[in-house]
Amino acid sequence: MLDPRHALLTVSQMSQADNLTIASGTCAEVLMENAGASVAREILKAWAPCRVAVLCGPGNNGGDGFVVARHLAAAGWDVQVGLLGPLDRLKGAAAHHARLWSGPVAPLTPKVLEGAGLVVDAIFGAGLSRALEGPVADVLAAAARSAPIVAIDVPSGVMGDSGEVLGAVAAQLTVTFFRKKPGHLLLPARHLCGKVVVADIGIAPSVLDTILPEAFENDPVLWRDDFPTLQHGGNKFTRGHALVWGGYPMTGAARLAARAAARAGAGLTTVTCPEVALGIYASALTSIMVQPLVDQAAFAKVLADDRMTGLLIGPGAGVDEQTRISALAMLATGRPTVLDADALTSFQKDPETLMGAISGPCVLTPHDGEFARLFDLAGDKLHRTRAAARMSGAVIVLKGADTVIAAPDGRAIINSNAPPTLATAGSGDVLAGIILGLLAQGMDPFLAAAAAVWMHGEAARSFGPGLIAEDLPDLLPKVLGGLFSQT
């Protein structure tokens, strides 16, 4: 298991964590008290006292809401509680904490919002499986128009496992417990969660030894120990040799990828290209070697050099038979290979051939359109990426603002540090090059993909507005310096 501090739990796994904690001697009422108290503390830190409407549902999320109401009232706040359904239908710990609330309880209607300067959404948690409708939808829509919202666990109407949104409105703050869920990171739900705070409610981290989560939020602690490091006495060959297929006439993409591979640490980087493009590549690349190719036999000779430790094809390669043949030749070497962009689309009419050719370490880096051309899969992004990794035998990097990295064995990492400035031409080529550079140095493909995605996002974040793809490779040294200064 990867570092458990960054584990993401499904709704079912979080329920299991609760149950394991209760079985070990902590009663459900105490867990609910801790949860509600933690939400109240976050509110007290962020807002001045005002009238607050606490919207409670009929389950445990509503029970948390009653605890919040009690703590805020004890702090001198003017609290109004609205409840969905009859009070006497509450069960277990929720009923217990409702009985401890001494104030009035109103029906859950827009009237409960009158005069409120803050709204607490404690209606439904992450396990909701249907769209919001009727009074709940009306009240939340009115709340979104009238005051900031604090959501307990997730905004009501957000699916915790998938990030799907079924009628939810945006919260300014979401307080969840023990560990985040995939829905806190996946779009579109992530945009509705606002700031996410993970509160400690007394669940021991050791429960994860039983649960064995397979999804994680991307963070250097997941892969820093596996990151290639410089060795005394090493040389350029011990740092790996990255090979990039350079297309023509679209030469910029491969040049971006090659520079990124070199900046990511590859000791040598070579671009192979048609003879006609030699002048373009050679004049634009100095520390990167350029190998002109007369024909496919010449490319086979390049691949026969076992000092080539990482291979990339796709950026600017062209969607054609030549790209297919060259991609298959790379895969046939069994060496770590990255397929991106045109190399993926070149197999859109025959994805089975691509899947059948993957036998060694391989990373595929599609965006949503390229993914759909290769994989006939439905479901949420996490599910689709995992399924594609199992089908292909490759690590899949399904790119986007919520990039998901999945391994064939089911492990998955969701990235959350990518700024919107990365939505610029060529940024994906740079990402492919970073992955290549790490693979060429011998890093595990799954961890290399996760590290590259994080570095890519961090480089863009450090630059800010005005970013173009050409900026990204030269930002990597600063990212690497910061990475290794962390403890």
The level 1 CATH classification of the largest domain is Alpha Beta
Overall CATH architecture of the largest domain:
3-Layer(aba) Sandwich
What is the overall pLDDT average?
96
Strand residue percentage: 15-25%
* CATH fold category name of the largest domain: UDP-N-acetylmuramoyl-L-alanine:D-glutamate ligase
How are strands sequenced across the largest beta sheet? 1-9-18-17-16-15-14-13-10-11-12
Separate helix tally = 18
Strand count: 18
Assign a percent range to the helix content. Answer: 40-55%
User: What structural class do you assign from the helix and strand content?
Assistant: alpha/beta
The separation of the N and C termini measures: 20 Å
Q: Specify Rg, calculated over alpha carbons.
A: 26 Å
What count of structural domains? 2
Unreliable parts = none
In CATH, the homologous superfamily of the largest domain goes by the name Ribokinase
Silhouette: elongated
Give a structural overview:
The protein is 40% helix and 16% strand. With 487 residues, the protein is α/β, with parallel strands linked by helices. The protein folds into 2 domains: 4-217, YjeF N-terminal domain (Rossmann fold); 233-485, Ribokinase (UDP-N-acetylmuramoyl-L-alanine:D-glutamate ligase). It has an 11-stranded mixed sheet, sandwiched between helices. Strands 4-3-2-5-6-7-8 form a 7-stranded parallel sheet. The longest helix is centred in the first third of the chain and has 19 residues, at 28-46. It starts with 6 loop residues before the first strand and ends with a helix.
